[in-house]
User: Fold these one by one.
Assistant:
Number 1:
Amino acid sequence: MPFKNDQSRISFTPGRKHFALLLDPDNLTEVSCLSLLTLSEAHPVDFFFVGGSLITSQNQAGIIRLLKQHSNVPVILFPSSHQHIDPQADGILLLSLISGRNPEFLIGQHVLAAPILKASALKVYPTGYMLIDTGRQTTASYMSGTMPIPYDKPAIAACTAMAGELLGLQYMYLDGGSGAMRPVSAEMIRAVREAVDLPMIVGGGIDTVEKAAAALEAGADVIVIGNHIEKNPGFLAEVSSLVASYNVALDVHR
Ligand code: 1GP
């Protein structure tokens, strides 16, 4: 495991765009995971995010083991509870669900997670997590018992992000939820981009290159894609080259 806990490998690089592939352990087999690993060798991915709002299988540890055995891409946990912390990973999004008002996901799970994280070598990313209403109730919103931010209210997202930044959170994640009918709007991404000076992660419902480009253009630093790559693994190559072309263009203009 050459890059295990090598923290320099798992930072977001300011001024660059990143692509995170979300791997939901419930939707993967060893075979499908290996085939995504092969694809990600030819078409670079910056991070593997592993997790989901509801995990019903016992696959997560095996999937992370496989990723660490076959790839140097950092594995970042995207957990729904402290029970999904796995020290085999490189890092963890310590999500504070600031779009909601459920204390369990604002501080409760964090109290349970804290001693485990302190004793581990996982890199912790303190992240303000905002669920956005993209048209239908998502697993994340139902399972967290929270109301998402209305789709057409960018000012609420911006003020929520500002509050998260003032509270000391270091990353923002705008999520329309896995398999969302439409992604978070460019207008909302831009509003959050202008409101806070933090790396911004955007995901949920990105299923075309155009939607991925719109999120990057509006200010996302990291785009997260899960669902559409599970259904159509070839999409991984398209997103990888889109993100690479953005980074080439950014280098040229530097
Ligand atoms: C969900 O942001 C992620 O939490 C990714 O969403 O599965 O729709 O790509 P998709």
Note: The chain has nine helices and eight strands.
Number 2:
Amino acid sequence: MAKLHIRPDVVKGHINPEIQGHFSEHLGRCIYEGLYVGENSPIPNTNGMRNDVVEALKEIHIPVLRWPGGCFADEYHWKDGIGPKENRKKMINTHWGGVVEDNSFGTHEFMELCRQLGCKTYINGNVGSGTVQEMSEWVEYMTFDGVSPMADLRAKNGHEKPWKVDYFGVGNENWGCGGNMLPEQYGMMYRRYQTYVRNYNNAAPVAKIACGSNVDDYEWTEKVLETTNRRMPKEAHGAMDGLSLHYYTHPGGWENKGSATDFTETEWYETMKRTYYMEELVTRHGAIMDKYDPEKKVGMIVDEWGCWFDVEPGTNPGFLYQQNTMRDALVAGINLNIFNKHCDRVKMANIAQMVNVLQSVILTDGERMIKTPTWFVFYLYQAHQDAELLDSTLETAMVGPEGHQAPNMTESVSMGKDGKMHITLTNESVSEDYPIDVILDSGKAAAVEGMILTGEMHEHNTFDNPEQVKCTSFDDVKLADDGLKLTLPKCSVLHLTVTVK
Ligand code: AHR
């Protein structure tokens, strides 16, 4: 019997809703077809955005959306995507599939999508192939309220009032596709570019995100922070509000990522092991950030994470389209638990990517749409948004064949805005159910409700069988004198809502 100890009186931090953020790139069928079909499409839409997809995303309360990339961001020239659509430049999307990008989805369309979703905006600027002036003017175009060349241009293009840009990324993966820079070089570029990312409205400041490391490149984190903090007042924190981190989970490594749906038990456990590596990455990059920012004013922004498998057979290799099984659900549940437990440092995370690419929550095929197992995990976890993280410890063991082992369970616990305690648990074992004693150090569990996502490890939804995997209510939990008693089924993600008296 494993024990889960919870101290309801000990608040460890605030869980930013942005931890459940998303990412949309001009990549494959994410923007075009997945989110945006244009006003004249036979697919029901509002101002070009698919109604079915927007509705499904609203159900999981998307807190923030990152756009336009990814690698696309450092080749994107925002002025190509404004003004009358028939005049917008066409270009080749060299990174992703070599297809024609007609720029019909640009700044105005992104802001309209976020308005419909009711989410915050995270724009990623171009450092790799763009100028300081171009970046500066984009910020002016979006946020300046008054008379200026860019504000006038925005009004001419039909939007009199400025928008709110909540987050602005100064480049993406500048160690790679964003310019192949050295950390000191990027640190210098960051200092210069960010200077002109102006805050035109002090009541609605733009939070600046610097490009952080790829996986375990601790030298990048150290040197970027060293460079950006040099000869800066301490309280400026390197002139940044956030530093990103990218880490994808692929069971066979970069060269041989493996199939999204056809995998062995060993590959299952290897995936769990590799995804759990996020815990170490957050801890170690966090320790470097602590040296420069002990007060934790700069957020760690894990703005690309999730499973990256081989593309579905027969699809464009540059479109990165993959299916999504119960394995993805576990990966999502584990990572969201890790982010919650590090919420003192992790302030945002954006799963890649929202629709039709990598670990998506939605897949579309023409006018059809399905919710993936990952969508259901976000559905289960949404009660953690804006909640207070509570102190909790779960007794775990390692599971899986020698060399491919991962912790058998993960958890996080919060006190929600609804005044209830929310417990999320994952069971990584494909063969064992685990009985758990939940022990509350104070208070008493007066009522409990559960929702679970569980199934055989390969199970997934298809356009012909869209509800193979879905949440159901969970009854195998009982109130006890000191807390709760439950059995966590194999291969599952569980959310318990507990009334504590
Ligand atoms: O998400 C796909 C790509 O992965 C992004 O464009 C890039 O930032 C990362 O390498």
Note: Residues 265-292 form the longest helix (28 residues).
